[in-house]
Amino acid sequence: xxxxxxxGESPEVFETVESASGPTPGASxxxxxxxxxxxxDFEPIVPEIVVPGGLRFVFPHxxxxxxxxNAGFAMRAWYDISALxxxxxxxxxxFDASVRGVRHLIDxxxxxxxxxxxxxxAGFSQGGSIALHAGLTYPKRLAGVIGLSTWLPFAERLERDxxxxxxxxxxxxxxxSADPVVPQAGGRAAADRLTALGHPVEWHSYPMPHAVCPDExxxxxxxxxxxxxxKPA
Length: 233
Prior knowledge:
7-stranded mixed β-sheet
């Protein structure tokens, strides 16, 4: 694993929607939306994520850019995408810029007073691919990384660029078995690949399409609660 840092890189600066599920949140979650959505997309789940002490949520807006898979129409996207199976051509420049932007948001949460071990990074669909890469390459140990209904478009690079600081950071990955947008096989393959690399992945499958469901949110609450029960080093 590389011990790469991101010092000196110019991050993408994202506008954010911010919320909290308690008056004095003890941890922060940087949560990335999917293709074509925006930072408001997951705001409604904040009251449903019930953990002791509550959480601070940071929902960034992806930049607006033309998206090849959607006939070049401009929409919010973390990077341009031509196929959902990760096949070329792939927008590595856009992907890298978004990863740097998420790292910047993590930095900001730490600077605001949260210990790194109390910061989670999460993402849904295209946002999940950024969350996995940003979290596992971050140079300080995080509380956990969450990838929902997602895949690994740059799996080889992630394997190369993973940081030792997050080698044993818990990962939660979940997917709908009836997902017509990002087939579950891609999510399962990503989870299996990360497990084979030694990352502790908890995998869940739900009978749903490209979405989140109540059972998934319940399992997410239990997973977050377990992570927060561990005292920071």
